[in-house]
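Problem 12. The chain below contains 199 residues. Write out its predicted structure in token notation.
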Amino acid sequence: MTWIRTLSFDEADEHLQKLYAQIQTPDGHIDNILTAHSLRPRTLSGHLVLYKSAMHSKPNALTPRERELVAACVSLSNECEYCVEHHRAGLARLVGDATLAGRLTEASQLRRDVSVLTQRETELCRYALKLSNAPAQMNESDLSPLRAAGLDDAGILDLNQIVSYFAYANRTVLGLGITADGEPLGLHPDEDREGYEHA
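Solution.
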């Protein structure tokens, strides 16, 4: 699960129990990336706000498929298998095909067959890969292909925040040895509702 001690619901104080109650899956599971924060509930609160705001809130110029694709793209680039598993499964739920979701995830690295990607998805991934792998080399011209693909400035900010969130999430996972053992994959908060409960 993780290299550090985590607190179960029964071990948690009232504040942490309230947070746990908001983020559990319908069967009562809490993702390991979230229980990893249990010794410092304030960072769990911050993580939840950032995740929900970047990935599962409206308005967002990126479609749900595009958001999951960018999440998988960044996570694969960072070799974060935990997040790759979760967001490849999220893609599979959206497209209704696990094989296609796997092809989309692999194509996001822009090294092999990219025919499954739209031109817009290709540009989203190109930006995500450069920001992930060479952040100091970013320049204003990197935004031009995104604008040509239909993103306005708010949409570019949406993309930037998803990429930036996964830089944080991937390093949380990799730095604490978090695994997806026993977790349901591909669940996420409903963007049409308040709160963080996964469905």
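Discussion. The two ends are 21 Å apart (CA to CA). Students who got a different answer should revisit the alignment rule from Section 12.3.
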